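Troubleshooting log. The previous structure file for this entry was overwritten by mistake, so regenerating from the original sequence record. Sequence copied from the archived sheet and checked twice against the printout by T.R.
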Amino acid sequence: MSEQNIERACTTILVGKNASIDGSVMIARNDDTFHAVAPHRFYMHPAVHGEKGRILKSYLNGFQMELPENGYRYPAVPNVDYKTLGYYDESGINEKNVAMSCTESTYGNERTLAFDPLVKDGLDEDCMQTAVLPYIDSAKDGVKYLGSLIKRFGSPAGNSVLFGDKDDVWYMEIVTGHHWVAQRIPDDAYVIAANQVAIQQVDFSDTDNFMWSEGIQEFVEEHHLNVDQAGWNFRHIFGSSNEKDRHYNTPRVWYGQHILNPEIEQDPESSELPFICRTSHKISPDDIEYILGSHYNETKFDPLSKGNEDTKYRYRPIGLNRTQNSHILQLRNDVPEEFSAVMWLAIGYPTFTPYIPFFTNATDTDPSFNNTSLTYNFDDAHWLYRSLSVLVESNYKHFVQDDLDYLKECRQELRAQVAKIDAEAKNYSGEALTDFLTKQNYETVKLMRDKATDFMGRLYTKGITLSNLTFNMDRNL
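Regenerated output below.
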C-alpha cells in the first residue's frame, strides 16, 4: 500500500456531555491528507435491507469482507477519486444517532510491533467507516464491533477511532496488528489527540470505562513490554516519543489544551501532556472550530505571523491546506432525538471557512456537496470554499480581518438557522420530519453559498485597490 494514499495527519477533539455548553456530546476531527488537492464529496448512504452477498473491497491493499445484509443510513465524506485514493468515508452519524470518525493515525513502537506486526491486507482506515458505522447502535457497541473485526482481519496501520452517542464518548487506539485499548471519556472532560498514542493509565478492573483486545495483558507480560516500575500506561508501553513527535504531534495537543486551559503552563514538546483534561470553561462548537482551524495563533510559532523563520515554522499547525474536511459531530440532549444529531462540516481550510450544520436525519445532500468534480468547478462546495481559502491567504495581512468578520457573521447566522429549524421541526414526525430536515439542509447550503460568493466578490473588489501596478502623481494623469 502506498504511504501517500493514507490519511496520516489528523487532529482529534472529544467532549463529554457535562463539559459542553449545552449538554451535547461532541466528537471532532480534521481529516488531513498528504495531498493538498484531493477532492472530497459529502453524501448520504441509503439504508440497506436484506441485501445479501455485498462485498467491501479495498482499492489500496486488497482487503475484503462480506457486509451484513442490513445497515443503517449514514452520511460520509469520501474521496471522489476512490479507485486511486481509497474510499475513506471518514465521518458521519447513522440513523440511530451514533457518531463515528476515523481515523486519527497513530504509531505503535518497534518493541510491540516486533511481536504483533501490522497485517498488510487487514482492515484499514480506507474501509473502516464503511465496515462499522451502518451496523452499530451505540458508541460502546462501535468499539466492540470494530474490535471483533480487528481480531478477525488484523490492522495494517495504527488507527485511533472516535465514537459518540448522546451519553458516551469512546476513544479507541489500535496500535499493532491485533491489539488495542479504548477508553470512555468522562462526562465532565475533554480530550485532544494528534497522531500519537494518547491513552495513559488503564484500569482493567473498570470495564465501564475501558475496553481492550483479548490477551493484551498477557501479551505485554510475555514479551516484557511494560517500561514502568508501576502501573499499566498504554502510551508508555505501545507509543512513541521521538523528535518527530515533539515537532509534529505534541505541540498541537499543547496548543489545544492551552486554548481551553490557558492557566496551565506546559511544554509544547512534552510527551507527558495529559490525555483526560478538565476545564471550568464550558466548551462550545465555536471553541472546537477555533482549535481545528488554528495555527498557533498569537504565539511565536504562528506560520502566518511576521516572526522569526526558524520559530514560526518549528511546529506543524492544526489547520492545514491539506485538511480536506473538518467536522464536529454533535449529539444534542436538549431537543428531541429525531432531530438532535448535527454534523458541522467545513469543506475548505478550517482556518478561513465556516462550519456548516447538517441535520443527519436526512436522505440526501445538496448536489454542490455530493457531486464534486475532480478538477476545478466553482459550482462545487469543495472548490468554492477552497477558492475562498486561497483568496484570503493570498493577501493575508489585508484580508484576515475581513475573513474574521465573515466567519463571525456566519456563526451568528448558522446558530440562528439551527434554532429556527429546531422550532419548526417540532411540527413534523417520521418521514415528514426527515423530508423537512433534508430540505432545510439544502436551504442552509444556499444561505452559505450566497454569503461566500458575496464575500469573495468584496475581497476581489478590495484586492483591485491593493495592486502594486499603481502610481499617483496627478489625478489627471
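The CA atoms of residues 118 and 177 lie 4 Å apart. Archived copy saved in two places this time.
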